[in-house]
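Recap from last week: sequence in, structure out.
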Amino acid sequence: MQDKDASQYVSVSTEVWNDLCDLVLNIIQVNRHLVRLVQKDKQEIFNRLESINDLCIKLNHRSVELEQGIIEIRKRTQ
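Predicted structure tokens:
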């Protein structure tokens, strides 16, 4: 049972890490293009910021799930 829990922990950790990487990449892209986009297309800025916000919300939910999983694994292994 502990191997299954550890496997789930690793799976969730990997998903959270991937979401964090996606978030960082989106932030980098926005920063690179922000000056150009301000003058060209405000809607594009809004769309990118909305995408970042969505990723932040998703990452927050996944990190809560990860924390709960860690707590559960600790309870079972004590």
